[in-house]
Structures are given as C-alpha cells and as structure tokens.
C-alpha cells in the first residue's frame, strides 16, 4: 500500500494570459505564413493563463543553453527546497523521516542531480535513497507514484518524498516557427510540486491510497513526443500522431478498472488525468465514454496553469483535497501520458478518517 | 533476494593505448605550461588502454553537441540492443521475461529514453516498467542493482534487466586544458554492459545474491564530481577534494560488513569496487586496511579498460565469473562511488549450484 497525501504546488510569480502570449508571438513572427491558423489553434488550447519562471521578455530571448541550465539549477533548487519544506511541515514530518527522495524534471539537466543537492542542503539522512528522473517527460509524476508504490510494498514502514520541477519556459526556442512549436509555447506552464507517499497510513491521515498500478508503452511511437538535443538545448517536438495514442491506451485503462474494481470508469468517484492538452482530454472522453464531469478537474488545471508536465497529476490530486468532497472509501483512477509513447496508470481508494 | 547473473560487457572497436593518447594530447596542447606534470599524472593513472566509440581523431574534434548526442543515440541503441539480446540469450530468457528495464547512462541525453527504444525495438512486453537514469554518473551501476534488489523484494517472481551505456569519449572538450580534464581524458573508457537480476534464483543458476544494501551521500560535496552543462555539451569536472570522500565512506562500509557478516572486509571472499581511478583505489586500500589482492580485479579493469563509469562494477563482477574461483556460499561486497558525492554499497553471497 502507499498513501499519497496532500500535495504542495508552487507557481513562479510571472504570469501571462493567452491573449498577451498571442501578441508576443505575433511580434516575434510577424510574417508567419500560417498565422491565422496558429492563432486559431492557440485559442483552441483552452489554456487561459500560465505562470512562467521569468518575465516573458527573458523567456523569448534565448540567452544560451548554459545560462538557462544554470537558471534551472538555481531556481529549481530554490523552489524545490521551499516545496519540500512546506510539504514536510504540512505532514508534520522532518527530512530524516524520508527514506527515498524522487525528483522528476524534464526541463534541465544536472549532475549531481537535484536529489543530491536537496539531501545535502536540507539535511536529509546521509543514507536517504535517491531517484532522479529526467527522461520521462509528462508521465514522470504518475510514474514516480507507481515506483513509490512498489518501493513501499518492499518497505511498508518507509516514506517517500516526490518533488516535480518543471520549467518548460526554459525550452522556448525563438527560431522555431513550426506550427506545433508555437502551440506548445502556449500550452506548457511552469510549476514545482511535491508530495509525501507513506508506506503505512497513520490515524487521521487523508489521501489517495494506491492499490494497483500498470504501465504501457506503445510500439514505434518514439516520434509522438520527443526532444531534439542541440547546442541551444532541448527542442520539444510534438507529432500529430500522438492523437492516435489514446485509442490504444483507453482499452488498457478500461480493463485495468474492470479487472480490479469490476466497475466502469464513470462508476469511479474521482479521476486524475494528465492534461496533455485539450485534444488529449477530448480523446479520453471519447474513447472511455467519460461523462464530462470526470475530466472537469483536469480541464480546469489546464485552463488556469497550462500543462505543467509531470506536476499535472499532483495539481489535479491537490484539487480533490481542496474541493473536500471525497468520502472515505471513494474509488478512483490516475493516468498520465508521456514520451515513448508511455502511460502510467494507478487505481485506489480515498482514505479519510 | 535478488540474484545478479553473469554480465555481458561489450567494448567499441576503436582502441587506444596510453602512450598514443599522450601523443594526441601533446599535439593538441603543444604549449601547455604544465605539460611535464600532465604527462607524469597521466602515466600515474595506471590505465594502459581503453576502447573508444570513435577513432581518436573524431573524439578530439568536437563536431557539436547535437552531432555527438545523435551518435550517442544511434550507437547507444545499437550496442544496448546487442548487449540485451546477448545477455538474455545467455540467460535463456526472452524480452517478455523482463518486468523492469533499467538503463543507466551519463554520457548522453534522450527523450524518449533508451528504455523506451529498447522496449519498442526488441519487443519487450508493452507493460514492461522502465527506469532510465542519466544523472548518477559512475555510481549508477551499483545504484541500479540496489534498486533492483528493492524491486524484487516487492515482486519476488519478477526479473530485472540492467543495461549500462557509457561513451565518455563523447564528452571530450578540445578547448579544456585544465590539468584535471586532461587526466580525465585519459582515464575514462567506453563500454556497454548488461545483466539480468532475478527475483528468485532457479536450479542451476550461478551469481551474486544481493542480501543487503546501503546508500550514502556526503554533505556539501557537490563540487567533487560534476558536469557543467553548456552549448558544447557536458563538461566533466573533478575536484581534488574527491580524495577526501573515501575516508568518510570507509567507516560506513566497515560497519555495513561488520553488522551483517560479523566480519572484517578482508575476511570476505570477493570484492567488487568501482575504479574511480588509481588514487580512489589506493584510498580504499588505505582506509579499509585492504590487502592488495582484494582490489586486484578492480585495478585490472582500470588498467585494460579505463574507468567505464557505471559499467565498472559489472565488468569486475564479470571477472569473478570468468576466473571461476567462486564457491557456493562465498561472501562478498560491492561498492561504487559517484557525483553527489554518493556511494552505493551491497553485500551478499555467491550462489553456485
């Protein structure tokens, strides 16, 4: 068993709404031959605002990969430290209570990794195990919860801390005017989030008790979501084929729920879906015959924050805590998608004593 | 329990001996003000030859980060596929017998990761779990065995495949004439290795049964071993402070052996140490009061291959299989070190039925 307790989500201070962003791109690419298509598609993302690590002027001016990666390190460590301290304090825990520290983040690269810096700076135990993940993109949040579930199956008295650090704005490439890239520039938001996963729930704990997990990789789909790695950093690429992925993963999700819950997806009480984008959510609705209400929290996260990559599932989970409508024993599912194409899925029960 | 079976180690075809390498560097930096010191220190590494992914002319000519990372992907995937097929075949296993695929590699960056490509290309099951690690450097091999141990504790009937892909020659920076960098250019070798870790040993299996694990991070030591990430790729940096690390980790290793085996390190039958370099091995000998014989396999790996990063522990372990001197019930230890500064340690018993 593994109890995911209330996450902490932190957003950097610089906010931009989609109208402002459209103006920024129009200024950057004044002669784009397909501008009306681009503008229509940006409006179709249903993203209204996003938080960014830096003012938009700095985001769109590429100061070099080295500068960006140093900024990633400084601000990533600062915000990850703050999120760690906040979530531990909210759980009435100290760094020494954590046995495994997972940091997931696909928008910068460090060696030593953020896990090492956090263990050293915040005085975690010197034997804290570390699991730093950088190559799993948006699926990494749910992936980490699944790995934490496996870990606490082996060590039921251990606790895991998961931190997600995503600054997609550091991947803005001002010379890339591909339509899909311009849309992506308006889709992803920056955020740092954290949560504690307990191997054994304690009296009074509330949270999402993961009881089953599944993983999926679609063959020959590496071009769906990918980075090109260049001297200018990571260049995000999204192929429209990615829309074919949900029809393949939906039956797996259906079987997963059917087998373990003997239920239909709409019979479940809560649904935590990664917000790859509006169309991915539409595909989920269509392929799982979901009622709209069951994607509403994911759509709301997308609307006000954009796609915050591996942090989305923590944000949507956090909304379940904030809404405070969950009853002890409620059943639910979480699913996230990322490069590969891969999916990570889990199911479980809401605990509220 | 987790049984590490015989590894496969593959070396790329281009070989260079240290005398040739000294000539190459002398040509590249003909006016180096400290050349005699550099040459003396290179000879002191006790590395005699290394295998490199490319001919030395291509290694020393930086063709750009993008070119190098593409080469990393193409050749990494090619050699990782070959090593995977070989080690599975030697274990009389098929890709579908693997439940968790771990790829450790700190010399390139891919998204999707090598785990995804291997699962897709070699027809692993679509629900194979993936664990791609890129930020743990030389410690990643032993780290992965420790994580495989935890995983099989939760899933005793599962099997794990570990693949290590290390092409340190892709990090050669021809404009970096720091003494420590010139030494590093003569220290690291390229290799791809793989091994299977079984949750439950079968009749007739031989291997290293891991029975206990430990992790260690030394506070405020992030500068010991690190990458600077620039438009020209990863710049490896080694601080001489790293020599202080072994005196801190040695007591932990002693306690770990004493507590579980009630033994002294020299009482153990086999010793698998990461070969950070000659001085790191000297420090181990000195701080653990090791008899020379117990570091001989690590020194030999360093001499003929250089430091092959996360693959070293698999190479030294492989030498135990090849030497064929292990008896059923022999006791041993493995320890590796990497950026952080971190150490991963495990202990166990040789199984030979």
TrEMBL record, chains A, B:
Ranges for domain Chalcone/stilbene synthase C-terminal: 220-344
GO molecular function: acyltransferase activity, transferring groups other than amino-acyl groups
Active site: 138 (acyl-thioester intermediate)
SUPFAM superfamilies per the UniProt record, alphabetical: Thiolase-like
Residues covered by the Chalcone/stilbene synthase N-terminal domain: 47-200
UniProt xrefs under InterPro entries: Chalcone/stilbene_synt_C, Chalcone/stilbene_synt_N, Polyketide_synthase_type-III, Thiolase-like
UniProt-recorded name of the protein: Type III polyketide synthase
């Amino acid at each position: 068993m593994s109890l995911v307790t209330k996450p902490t989500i932190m957003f950097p201070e610089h906010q931009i709404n989609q109208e402002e962003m459209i103006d920024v791109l129009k200024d950057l690419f004044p002669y784009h031959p397909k501008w009306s298509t681009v503008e229509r598609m940006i409006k179709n993302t249903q993203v209204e605002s996003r938080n960014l690590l830096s003012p938009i002027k700095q985001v769109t001016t590429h100061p070099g990969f080295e500068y960006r990666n140093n900024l990633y390190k400084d601000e990533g460590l600062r915000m990850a430290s703050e999120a760690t301290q906040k979530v531990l304090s909210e759980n009435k825990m100290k760094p020494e209570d954590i046995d495994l520290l997972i940091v997931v983040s696909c928008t910068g690269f460090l060696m030593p990794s953020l896990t090492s810096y956090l263990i050293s700076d915040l005085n975690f135990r010197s034997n804290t195990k570390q699991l730093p993940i950088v190559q799993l993109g948006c699926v990494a949040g749910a992936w980490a919860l699944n790995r934490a579930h496996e870990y606490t199956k082996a060590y039921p008295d251990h606790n895991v801390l998961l931190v997600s650090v995503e600054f997609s704005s550091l991947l803005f490439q001002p010379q890339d005017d591909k339509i899909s890239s311009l849309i992506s520039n308006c889709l992803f938001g920056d955020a740092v989030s954290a949560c504690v996963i307990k191997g054994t729930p304690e009296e009074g704990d509330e949270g999402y008790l993961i009881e089953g997990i599944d993983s999926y990789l679609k063959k020959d789909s590496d071009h769906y979501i990918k980075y090109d790695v260049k001297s200018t950093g990571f260049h995000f690429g999204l192929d429209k084929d990615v829309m074919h992925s949900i029809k393949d993963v939906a039956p797996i999700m259906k079987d997963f729920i059917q087998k373990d819950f003997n239920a239909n997806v709409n019979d479940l009480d809560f649904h935590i879906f990664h917000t790859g984008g509006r169309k991915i959510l539409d595909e989920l609705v269509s392929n799982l015959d979901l009622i709209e209400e069951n994607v509403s929290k994911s759509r709301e996260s997308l609307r006000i924050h954009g796609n915050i990559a591996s942090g989305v599932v923590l944000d949507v989970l956090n909304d379940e805590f904030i809404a405070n409508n969950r009853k002890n024993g409620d059943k639910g599912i979480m699913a996230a998608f990322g490069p590969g194409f891969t999916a990570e899925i889990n199911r479980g029960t809401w605990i509220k004593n």
